[in-house]
Specification:
By secondary structure, this protein is mostly helical. It has a domain of about 110 residues. It is about 75% helix and about 0% strand. α3 runs parallel beside α5 and α13 packs antiparallel against α14. The termini are far apart.
Length: about 290
């Protein structure tokens, strides 16, 4: 049976197997999936070598979706990597069709968290390298942020990607869902700082305003010192008040030590971009630079 299937696959490969044929081959079992992988890959590579880049991209993504859908993860990842490799080497920017394809792959990977994380990281890196925006595509950042949020210990990293994705709304709704009162306010503070570090005062204000509104509607306890700090910080950033900013950061220093990133952001990019304060030189970094 396996021999007959292999002969049929070989015969069809010379003519080009259609998508339905390959789907059937994958669903027939591990041997069929392996054969389908070879066919998907060889066809994508053949189109690539002929200069049909769009065809190669489509074939690689179709292979990834087909194999992942049938839980052949290693084979699916191989096709995902080929898909991203072709995009990167040809300097192709994201468009509506590619976004749709990525969303389809992402949906298939929704229950495969580790694989999804690596795929979305690859997508963000690709849009940084080949896209028109310095930080990459905002929507790709939000996809990655949503994935990271559900992984243990990854929420601080997720907050950065929400900020890079300019999505104060979804970040706020995630924050409000945190049960612990102090943890909720700490996460908000880090979110505000990340938006400000990216010179995005508008979304920093929107994050804080929506948070305040949602907390009030849900009957949460009155905000503590960190909420007051965020309020004062945003007011200070709306005007040229460098001395006041320095005083504010120093006054609340003891409340901001819950995450070293907060202090790093405030004394680095936030101060620099909002008030023109040059960050203190990192002597170890300078020494390493001189030794290289």
């Amino acid at each position: 049976m396996a021999l007959r299937r292999k002969k049929e696959a070989a015969a069809k490969s010379g003519k080009e197997m259609v998508k339905g044929d390959l789907e059937s081959l994958v669903s027939s079992g591990p041997q069929g999936a392996y054969e389908a992988l070879q066919l998907f890959r060889s066809k994508a590579q053949r189109l690539r070598s002929k200069g049909d880049i769009n065809g190669a991209i489509k074939e690689a993504s179709n292979g990834a979706k087909c194999l992942l859908k049938h839980n052949y993860d290693h084979a699916g990842v191989e096709m995902n990597n080929l898909f991203l490799e072709i995009l990167n080497e040809n300097g192709i920017d994201i468009n509506a069709e590619l976004r749709h394809t990525i969303n389809e792959i992402d949906e298939i990977l929704s229950e495969k968290r580790t694989l999804r994380l690596e795929f979305l990281k690859g997508c963000v890196k690709w849009t940084i390298k080949c896209g028109s925006r310095e930080l990459g595509d905002p929507k790709m950042h939000v996809h990655l942020a949503m994935c990271l949020w559900d992984l243990e210990g990854q929420q601080p990293t997720a907050i950065y990607h929400f900020a890079a994705g300019e999505d104060s709304d979804q970040l706020c709704r995630k924050i409000v869902g945190i049960e612990d009162h102090l943890k909720r306010e700490q996460t908000l503070t880090l979110g505000v700082c990340h938006f400000l570090a990216l010179d995005n005062l508008k979304d920093a204000n929107e994050l804080f305003a929506l948070y305040t509104k949602l907390c009030k509607s849900r009957g949460f306890p009155k905000g503590g010192e960190l909420i007051t700090f965020c309020d004062y910080l945003l007011q200070t950033c709306r005007r040229d008040a460098t001395p006041l900013y320095k005083q504010l950061v120093n006054a609340y220093k003891a409340h901001l030590d819950f995450d070293e990133n907060v202090g790093t952001l405030l004394t680095g990019p936030v101060g620099q971009r909002m008030f023109g304060i040059q960050p203190r030189p990192n002597m170890m970094s300078m020494l390493q630079h001189m030794l290289n």
